[in-house]
Design goal:
two-stranded antiparallel ribbon, Histidine phosphatase family protein, 35% helix, globular, Rossmann fold, 199 residues, alpha/beta, His_PPase_superfam
Length: 199
């Protein structure tokens, strides 16, 4: 019994690379991101997809909506694949974070550091891995789409690759990318990593 998971990072918003948005509200896709979301919908148009689950954050929902519309399927909100809770860092510019020694510690050793008033990457990993395990049972022998966030997708992939959480910087998860994971009773394997649909 296997299930195939297409782990989709939300498309680009106008603050990508400048602000650590975290779970702050009101972060919507920009024009580039809207175009990326439409390309994702085209990419999945000929796939047989049994379910579409998305993080509750606006940028994820706005990425998932064109896919759901194209496939004529409902969206399901899944809190367990939401962005990491960055606590007090949410909404802070990366320029300001670079001056914070706690930010440096977080990026050097995510296995044993925590954002102020936030959650660890290991806690985020437990959330998404738990969701994948539950959905694996629900969608046996079918494929589903999970629209989530870069570090959360990385956490899931690191778990299934048998790598430590501190290996998070060894690969990229681009906006609007697809990483495909197959999970079975026998274990799991990554079929594709960071597939970006060309314009």
């Amino acid at each position: 019994m296997t299930a195939t998971f297409h782990l989709v990072r939300h498309a680009a918003h106008d603050r990508v690379g400048t602000i650590l948005c975290g779970r702050m509200p009101g972060v919507h896709l920009g024009d580039v991101g809207k175009a990326q979301a439409e390309r994702l919908a085209e990419r999945f148009a000929n796939e047989t997809i049994a379910g579409i689950h998305t993080s509750p954050l606006e940028r994820a929902v706005e990425t998932a909506e064109p896919i759901a519309a194209r496939l004529e399927q409902p969206l399901e909100i899944c809190e367990d694949i939401a962005e990491i809770d960055f606590g007090a860092w949410s909404g802070t510019s990366f320029e300001a974070l670079a001056q914070d020694p706690r930010w440096s510690a977080w990026n050097k050793a995510r296995s044993n550091s925590r954002p102020p008033y936030g959650e660890t990457m290991l806690e985020a990993q437990a959330r998404i891995v738990g969701a994948i395990e539950r959905l694996h049972q629900r969608y046996a022998d079918r494929s589903i789409i999970l629209v989530s966030h870069s570090d959360v997708i990385k956490a899931a992939l690191l778990y299934h690759l048998g790598l430590p959480i501190d290996a998070y910087a060894r690969f990229d998860i681009e906006p609007a990318s697809i990483s495909t994971l197959v999970v079975g009773d026998w274990g799991s394997k990554v079929l594709r990593l960071n597939e970006v649909v060309a314009a």
